[in-house]
Each structure stands twice: as structure tokens, then as C-alpha cells.
Amino acid sequence: MCDTCGCGDPNLVPVEVHESLFAANDRVAAHNREHFRGHGVLALNLMGSPGSGKTAVLEATARARTGIRIAAVSGDLATDLDARRLEAAGIPARTITTGSACHLDAEMVHRALHHVDLDQLDVFVVENVGNLVCPAVYDLGQHANVVALSVTEGEDKPLKYPVMFRKADLVLLTKCDLAPHLGVDFDALHRALEATMPEPRWISFSARTGEGMEAWLAWLSGRRVTAAPAAAAAR
Amino acid sequence: MCDTCGCGDPNLVPVEVHESLFAANDRVAAHNREHFRGHGVLALNLMGSPGSGKTAVLEATARARTGIRIAAVSGDLATDLDARRLEAAGIPARTITTGSACHLDAEMVHRALHHVDLDQLDVFVVENVGNLVCPAVYDLGQHANVVALSVTEGEDKPLKYPVMFRKADLVLLTKCDLAPHLGVDFDALHRALEATMPEPRWISFSARTGEGMEAWLAWLSGRRVTAAPAAAAAR
After folding, report:
1. Preferred mutation among B9, B26, B82 to probe A, highest tally of A CBs within 10 A
2. ipTM score of the complex?
3. Is A5 inside a domain boundary?
4. How many other β-carbons are positioned within 10 Å of the β-carbon of residue B89?
5. pLDDT of B100 above 90
6. Could you tell me if residue A154 is inside a domain?
């Protein structure tokens, strides 16, 4: 089992350890979700490989000046570089330093929420640790999973990392401006997404050129959460 | 703890579970290493993010027709795409399908070795699961760790994923042909590597143009392992 993250061969990890950790995580995730809903805040779990452009998506969204009020937490093993980039772009952000863990869990997000005024928000983004495997498995209390998949990563990634793409509600095909230099086979990429995602939905996106921004903002608007006052008192 | 990989918040995973798994893994890793050394085979653990170009490095190495006899195993959650690419390039290769786990462990490699004739090899490459966190933690019995870091991933990755880069003996800065389209700040990237790697060593590499191939082959030659006959009988 990982010194850093607790990863292990699932055959070697006692089943009861798995189950109790999952049950504990799911309870906190349900609490987080209730909390977001109570304040009418859409919560997103933004995942993807290291360097897939998760932070750049949020920076570009902030630059679009849509009036959508966004805040974020960024998970990383070390450094607060992403949160500083987001703050500089106008998105209030905090860092969750995992030190070792290769993903965020519901309790980490819950602790971070104590520093966030949800009444001032429309969208709360959890920018997960860069990892195309483990983050998909933990419920954080989000309403939707968004995966940033850079076109530089290759067309086969949905097939090779199916756990992540089975859980994705939306895939942003980032760095599309680089596609002409790569010879990306978009048909193959789309087929891989269709073969893996239960409800295939993707947007070709470039933080640099603005490609896909309109579709991304329309998707965000369509996902808006209406506050449920009764639940708001649940905290 | 992950349904897929056993990842968990290290604070929640019992210490004794950690320790017994690590001890078991290290025993098998030592056995693997003895085995490689007995046959005079250099064993490499090739790691990097999804889409960082690990397979492409090996394909390009095969195309260079150096006479170095290489075989490989490729770890992936699903598909045998990488092993098929390697076979097509002339590198005997097998797939280790992890199904769920986000990294390989020594036992998985040990089982794969039963199908490999080490007497016919100079170099055995374990192409790990695409993941910049967990694979660094497990000893597989390799002699050296090579990390493929694509220049598309951003200059900050060594700082943000220090566990991986602290363990790296060599970093291949892959997809260097794309650098002009990205505005890569190589000074910042090199500083990040120097700040993280105990003995900083990197090669700018492009599987497409051949940049860095000569330096990579020289590094490989410098690492050649001489057979230790006494150990060869240890199996």
C-alpha cells in the first residue's frame, strides 16, 4: 500500500477496510451535497490528468466575465500554485494540500467549505488532484463530474481509463488549438468517448482561443441548482 | 478507500495494513531485482502521466535499431493497446491489466516475468500505469526509474508531484517538437526539476523528430547490468 496515498492491490486490502472507508466518505459527501443544494450552489468535481488544463479552464471561464459567481478549491500534493492562479484570475480559491494522497475525499472538501460563503456563489468547483484513475471513485458531494482531457494525451485514453470516463457527465477536450500540430483523430477520440461514457457529452475547448467557451457556459447554465431552503438548515 | 485501486486517505488506513503490504511488496521486488541481475538485464520502471508518451519513447527506441534487446510489460486498467503498439514496433511485450489498480506492484511484475526469457534480453522495461502519483511508491525490482514528462503538461509538474520526481533517475522531456507551439519556459521547467530531483538528469526528447535519442541510448548503455552468475541460480 502506498506510503503516499494508501493505494494498494485491492486483493491485498481487507474488504472491511474498503467498506468502512467508503461508508464514511459517502456520509460526508451526502452532507456536502445537501449543503450545496441548500444554498443553490452547483458543485462540480473537475478531474483530469496532470497538465490536462483544469486550472486553465477555470481561468478562461473567469475571463469570460459571465456574471456567474464561482469559487474553487484546488487539490495538489504540494504547492498552492493553482489556487494562486485562480485568485489572480478573479476566482476565490483555496488549496487542499494532500501531501501524499492521489485524490480528494469528502472530508477534505467538507473542511474547506468552512471557509467558503456559499450564499455568495453560483458554482463551486473542486479541482481534484491531477490523476485519471483514483479521483473518479470518491464521491465529494458534487452534482456533476467534469473531466478535462487534453487532445495531446491521445485518442485512446477513455478506453484505457474507463473508470474515470464512465463517471463523467461532461468531457472538455482541452488544448484543441494544438490539434493541427498533433494530427488528432477526432473520430477515434469521439468513438472512444461514446464507447465509455454512459451519456456521451463533450465540448472541444481551448482556453487559449476561446473555442468551446459558449457551449461550456451553456452547459453550466443548464446545470444551475435551485436553492432548497429546508435543506439549508441541515448543517 | 478506492473501489478501483485501494487508494485512501492515509490517515484512515490502518498503519499495520500499510506496513504488511509494503513489506510483502518489497520482498517480491528484491526477488525480481535479483532475477534481473542474475541474467544481466537492466530493469527500468517507466512512469508518467496518461498520454505523456511512454509507449512512444519505446517505439522510437525500437526504430533506432541499436541492437539493444528490449522487452516490456505495459500496465493499464483496460485494453492491451500499448503492448500491441510495442509488438508492432518489434518489442516483445505483454499487458498487465490492473482492472482497477492505479499502479503496478512487484507481484504483478513477478507473474509477468514467468513469460519472459531474460537470457535473450539486455533491457526489460515495465511501462507503468499512467499516473504521476502512485506508481513512484512501489518498488518493482527495477534498477532505475525513468519518468516521461511531456512538455505539454506545464513547467510546474515536478513541484506539484514531488513524490514522483524525487524518485526519478532520469526524466525524458517528451513531445519537445511541440514546444514552439506552447511557449514552454524551459528555464522554469529545469529549475523545477533541479528543485525536486536528488540528482537532476533530464533529456529533451521527441519520438517524432528523434531529438534526444542519442542521449537516451547513451544513458541506457551507461546503465547496462553485468550478469551475476551466483544470483542467477536464486530463482
Report:
1. B9
2. 0.91
3. no
4. 17
5. no
6. yes
Q: What is the DSSP track for B142-202?
A: -SEEEEEEEGGG-TTHHHHSHHHHHS-SEEEEE-GGGHHHHT--HHHHHHHHHHH-SS--E
Confidence (pLDDT) at B20: 82
Residue range B191-197: average pLDDT? Answer: 98
Please count the structural domains in chain B. Answer: 1
Contacts of B163 in chain A (CB under 8 A): 4, 77, 100
Residue B110 is part of which domain span? 15-221
Local structure of B107: helix, strand or coil: helix
If you average pLDDT over residues B196-203, what whole number do you get?
98
Given CB atoms, is B102 within the 8 Å cutoff of chain A? yes
The CATH number linked to B154 is 3.40.50.300
A218 found inside a domain: yes
The answer to whether the CB of A81 falls within 8 A of the CB of A75 is no
Sheet hosting strand A70-76, strand order edge to edge: A93-97, A70-76, A123-127, A42-48, A144-150, A170-174, A202-204
Residue A68 forms contact with B (CB below 8 Å): no
Is B226 a domain residue? no
B65 versus B205: the higher-pLDDT residue is B205
**Contacts of residue B78 in chain A, CB cutoff 8 Å?**
159-162
